[in-house]
């Protein structure tokens, strides 16, 4: 069987020996196992392998052999294409038979041109899927190789989880940094407010001291003025009390008999009081007369209104009487005319 020619930029193909598969199908080892060590590291770093041909078939490649009659090959599911998409570097060089993870050359096959393209094996034998979305060639490996593949898959999942956790951790660190910065800003604002409060309190104390200093002289002056005024009032009260005592002493002393002038003065005072009483009496009478005058004026006005109303009633009565007289005269005239007409009719129409 002719060996396929290598693509430009690739290493020469390695002879592979296909092993017996399930249901008589040919199974091959996974391409990640047969890839060179430096290409596996490059794939683990970039998560893909560049295809220099971009999936195109070379013109100088030998024609494929006609497929043998058999069952229709199965299509590869989507899960198989991404099963080994995030695998870490292998533990050894698969091309080196002396390494701990190496595979003998007789069990190797050439690497696929593209990591994400799954080409069916030669002679039309397609890899079948057996349980848990694993290709058939996984079940045709030895237990160590199967465990290695599963460990790589688990390592890929673990790396993905680690990257996700690292991303979440970086986001958490960013949020924590923002929160700390916000806390620092708030602390600075609180400190500034505390300083402002301290300054305001100091200013308030200063203003209080200044107000007290200004009020003390005023209070002292007012207090002195009040004390002087109180002392003056007290002196006045004492003088009044002395005069009262003197007056009481004079009343107790026997009064001399009144003289002629004093008697005349007393008589005149009596007359003045009598005239004053007369004046008050006359004023009272004048008030009574004024009140009676108002009453009389009201009565006169009432009488005038009554007279006016009676006069109007008389005028209306005379007018009514005149109208009735005119109506009676008209009725008598009409009756007379009717009587004359009836008499004429009787004369023209004798019985």
UniProtKB/TrEMBL annotation:
Extent of Pro residues compositional bias: 1-11, 62-74
UniProt biased composition (Basic and acidic residues): 48-61
Regions annotated as coiled coil: 141-250, 307-334
Basic residues composition-biased segments: 36-47
Keyword terms of this UniProt record: Coiled coil
Taxonomic superkingdom: Eukaryota
Start and end residues of each stretch annotated as Disordered: 1-136
The protein's name: Uncharacterized protein
Species classification: Eukaryota, Metazoa, Porifera, Demospongiae, Heteroscleromorpha
């Amino acid at each position: 069987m002719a060996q396929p020619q290598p693509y430009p930029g690739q290493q020469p193909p390695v002879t592979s020996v296909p092993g017996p598969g399930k249901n008589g199908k040919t199974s091959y080892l996974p391409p990640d196992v047969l890839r060179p060590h430096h290409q596996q590291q490059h794939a683990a770093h970039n998560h893909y392998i560049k295809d220099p041909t971009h999936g195109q078939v070379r013109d100088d490649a030998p024609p494929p052999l006609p497929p043998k009659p058999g069952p229709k090959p199965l299509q590869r599911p989507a899960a198989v294409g991404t099963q080994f998409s995030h695998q870490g570097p292998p533990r050894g060089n698969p091309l080196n038979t002396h390494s701990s993870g190496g595979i003998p050359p007789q069990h190797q096959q050439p690497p696929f041109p593209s990591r994400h393209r799954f080409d069916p094996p030669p002679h039309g034998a397609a890899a079948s899927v057996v349980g848990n979305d694993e290709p058939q060639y996984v079940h045709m490996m030895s237990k160590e190789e199967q465990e290695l593949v599963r460990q790589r898959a688990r390592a890929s999942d673990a790396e993905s989880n680690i990257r996700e956790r690292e991303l979440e951790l970086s986001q958490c660190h960013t949020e924590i940094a923002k929160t700390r910065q916000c806390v620092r800003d708030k602390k600075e604002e609180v400190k500034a407010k505390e300083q402002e409060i301290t300054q305001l309190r100091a200013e308030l104390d200063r203003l209080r001291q200044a107000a007290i200093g200004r009020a003390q002289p005023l209070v002292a002056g007012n207090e002195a003025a009040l004390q002087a005024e109180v002392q003056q009032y007290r002196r006045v009260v004492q003088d009044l009390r002395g005069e009262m005592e003197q007056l009481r002493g004079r009343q107790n002393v026997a009064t001399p008999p009144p003289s002629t002038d004093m008697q005349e003065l007393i008589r005149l005072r009596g007359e003045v009081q009598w005239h004053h009483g007369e004046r008050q009496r006359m004023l009272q009478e004048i008030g009574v007369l004024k009140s009676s005058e108002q009453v009389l004026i009201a009565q006169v006005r009432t009488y005038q209104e009554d007279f006016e109303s009676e006069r109007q009633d008389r005028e209306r009565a005379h007018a009514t009487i005149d109208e009735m007289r005119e109506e009676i005269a008209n009725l008598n005239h009409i009756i007379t005319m009717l009587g004359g007409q009836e008499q004429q009719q009787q004369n023209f129409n004798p019985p």
